[in-house]
Amino acid sequence: MRDQTRKSGDFNVFEIEPFETENKKPLPYKKRDYYKVSLLEGNSLMQYADKVIRIPKQALIFTNPYIPYCWKHFESVHKGHYAIFSDDFFYSYSKLSKYSVFQPKGHHVFELDDEQLAWVKDIFAKMHKEIASTYEFKLDVLRMLTQELIHFAMKLKPSESQQHTLNAAERISTLFFELLGRQFPLDELHPRVELRTASEFAEKLNIHPNYLNRVLKETVDKTTSQIIQERILREAKILLKDTSWNISEIAYGLGFTEATHFNNFFKKQLKMTPGQFRKV
């Protein structure tokens, strides 16, 4: 994987060079932090939210930090490109969430014919060239090129090669825990959780909250709320012991509207206040 070393703000573009799967290098950015537009060449299977989609040849794929996904190759050598960017990169220019390719119930995988593939590869080539340039307004150019890919995809017919695995409950449970885990640990670059309720998680997974609750009861014998509260509590303990954040900052980071709400939650779980726990 070749890294374009000149990063521009909250945008970067990479080329996926042919590689053996066992020698894969880790991605240089945390998935939770970035939106991504990928061009994937090769036979593969992608698990995206509540769907499993087969990509027989080549596809343009859109992912965001809040909808879990994973994909695996059926072949050992692949190539392609991907651009990553944050919501801030489009600040005052456009709102990413308004585009269907980044919405939970939108279409995210678009198979390409050879002519479409050539067009998309040309856009990525322009991105690689632009990000390495010294042009004063190259960020504007990169935004426009990204917009071209977004609108190009939304005019295409989305991939319909969807499959259903035998154990849907286990698959959804895995995606839920991945989505939950992406919100942690909290730090200066990621100071607050975005998802706190069963309904919010269910929306990202494209399922009803009651169904998500049944799935988790079946697979781990806990309710959605129990799992979320346990993870919030675990992060609270870490922040209290290992950081200098004050109680109000920790409460805000964990999604509590008031520090008193956090205190009540913590005391209910551990029979002591956050301040008392910090001193132990």
Annotate the secondary structure layout.
Elements: E1 2-3, E2 11-16, E3 35-41, E4 44-48, E5 51-55, E6 58-63, E7 69-73, E8 79-85, E9 109-111, H1 114-131, H2 138-154, E10 162-163, H3 168-181, H4 198-205, H5 209-220, H6 224-242, H7 247-253, H8 259-270, H9 274-279
Antiparallel strand pairs: 1-2, 2-8, 3-6, 3-8, 4-5, 4-7, 5-10, 6-9
Principal-axis shape: globular
Residue windows where pLDDT falls under 50 for at least 5 positions? 1-8, 19-31
CATH topology of the largest domain: the name is Jelly Rolls
The CATH architecture category of the largest domain equals Sandwich
Structural class from helices and strands? Answer: alpha+beta
Largest sheet: 6 strands, antiparallel
**Proportion of residues in extended strands:** 15-25%
Query: What is the typical, i.e. mean, pLDDT?
Result: 83
- The CATH C-level class name of the largest domain: Mainly Beta
Q: How many extended strands?
A: 10
First-residue to last-residue Cα separation: 47 Å
User: How many individual helices?
Assistant: 9
Q: Portion of residues in helices?
A: 40-55%
Helix and strand pattern: EEEEEEEEEHHEHHHHHHH
Count of structural domains? 2
Q: What is the CATH superfamily label of the largest domain? A: Jelly Rolls
Domain HTH araC/xylS-type: 170-280
Organism: Saprospira grandis (strain Lewin)
Protein name: AraC family transcriptional regulator
Keywords: DNA-binding, Transcription, Transcription regulation
